[in-house]
Design brief:
The chain is an alpha/beta fold. The chain contains 7 helices and 11 strands. It has one domain: Glycerol-3-phosphate (1)-acyltransferase.
Amino acid sequence: MLSLQPITRSANLARRAGVALGSVGVTLYFCLLVIVRAALGRLRREHVDRYTRIWSAALLRLVRMRMTVQGRCPDFNDGRRYLILCTHSSHYDIPASFVAMPGSMRMLAKSELYRIPFLGRAMRAAEFPSVARHNPQQARRDLARARQMMESGIVLWAAPEGTRSADGRLQPFKKGCFHLALETGAIIVPVAIRDIHHVLPARTWRLNLDQPVQLCIGAPIDASRYDQDNLAVLMADTRERMELLLYGQVAAPVPSPEPVLETCAD
């Protein structure tokens, strides 16, 4: 059978270095911009919305990603709480989502990111909630804070797989995101990003340029129609919808490993 998968153009060492330096440079610029504006008391939510999208677009241009969007995004300004649950097979999932989707979107991030100089301070100022993956009590407090942010109008982006997939296939889900959805009565927006794992495969420095990527937005799921006793049903329904977006069909069940902590940050 003739493969329709485009030929991968692997970047040489000079190009990889250029992308790395450019990515660090543009990230540092916007981190400093957020930090300075916050220190002066002049940082508003709409500023962060604009900065994150400009930053994200710049990162995608550096790798010359060719992204198309399929599906319709809900109206995030209708007063309801929204939780975007996205497949996670690349560091570029997050900027791709920021570019493709509207609203005051913030990533539910692992707490380790806040230890990075400038980045951590900027993320706190910009209302990016964290999750302590290896401290259950702190994780519960973190999720309570995330709930408050959702109630204030922020749309949270999270990866229910908890870590990046090396081959682009959907991994087992963790429960933290779904507890948050049930507690807030959120509308879950399932998103799958096809072929983005080719851009920068997980746990490698193999950068590939000019990759076609498709971000697929699925029909929303109203978590308020479920209760805590139906947590597994909500997870299964969300997974089925994401599999349909990712593969065009429902995949065979994947056995779940024993989790260290049920959170949903990478």
